[in-house]
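Weekly structure sync, notes
Attendees: PL (lead), two postdocs, one rotation student
Agenda item 3: pending single-chain targets
PL asked that the sequence for the first pending target be pasted directly into the notes so everyone works from the same version. It is reproduced below exactly as submitted, 449 residues in total.
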Amino acid sequence: MKIVIAGAGAVGKHLARLLVKEQHDITIIDESQEKLESISSNLDLRQLQGNPMSIGVLKTANVQNSDLFIAVTPDEAHNLTCCMLAAKMGAEKTVARVDNPEFTLEAETTFFKKMGVGSIIYPELLAGKEIVSNLKRSWIRQWTEFQNGKLIMLGIKVRANASIVTEDKPIKEICGSDAPFHIVAIKRGNDTIIPHGDDFVCHDDIAFFMTTPEHTAHIRQITGKEDYPEVKTLMILGGSDTTKQTVSLLPKSISTRIFEKSQKRCEEFNRVIDTDHIMMIHGDGTDTDLLEEENIDKCDAFAALTDNSEKNILACVMAKQKGVRKTVAIVENTDYISMAENLGIGTILNKKTIAASHIYRMLLKADTTSVKSLTVANADVAEFPVMENAKVTRHPIKDLNLPASINIGGIVRNGRGILPNGNTQILPGDTVVAFCLESNIKKLEQYFK
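Predicted structure, written out during the meeting:
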């Protein structure tokens, strides 16, 4: 597939590294030679210095013959214009990253599609949805619903008190063929494991469970998370755009205080916020005296959502020390994600990864409905509708010869979630939720053709 990326900033660089692994024909455009050179020299892609709004530059990039044009420069106006030009020149699909949440409204996306902008990505809104989903359930690291909640994936930090942490019971004994859950991925230290029957769950693993809605309470019990409180009070560090999207989605049952050092930003927020369960506090949310005055020790959750990864990590560590059970951090510097995890920060989100997941699904030739990256683990999860004569329907799962890096987590059949075992036969019309190590999703896709 021929892909052109406009913008060699953080998002463009992340996408380029992800896509090159799949052996696509990648061209990346940026006006800054320095940014282009910062992309690893061992990546097999074409670098083109120039203005991506120049028709001449786009022609040199062969946009007219591209399958996908992705505009992720820092300027949303440039991104929208680039996509319009690319579509007129013949690009099959276009994607633009924007900063204005209004552009994600249905009326606006319909307008932009007519103008040639096929899809719009607003990372802050995507991150806000993830944050709220995690705050609603303080005992999990990640919660993802598939097929309108027919199947649910839970990412949980497993401590020594969990009943599934044993030295003598491998996974095949913990979750046999009749168990109400599957363990589909494990993050252990810096390694990601797609587990099989003889593997064990260990203290401090992040285990990813697949289950159906009626069994989430059982998973909470076996992972020793029953004492985690429901989030009713929340503190947020930073009046960022991500914060704006988060509070717009928060249920009114969560009383929220937002700490922001900038008086101007506080005033902007107060004009936008029209609710009595959210309060802006003009002050430094890393000031321990201020936090103690605001009773941080009685707070259920703390979210650090500034644009500074280091500040977010340190703030969450401080909140943990003050007794806050649930913490959330935006960590944009991918080099810091493992460090943040080792420091015991609860939910770690990376907007680049979230945006890349949404863009990446456009590349799959199978009719994939979604692809989601597990932020702290080098793994992806994808939904695949099963077509007639697809390879995955020819044999029971145990006889499909799936690579060790791939795991079938669940099936939705006739509107009902099913947890398959080795003898399960996948049928046309099913929707399959499958897991694989990062960069193996193309291997997975082959089974659904």
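Discussion points:
- The chain has a mean pLDDT of 88.
- The first strand starts at residue 2 and ends at 6.
Action: rotation student to compare against the earlier draft before next sync.
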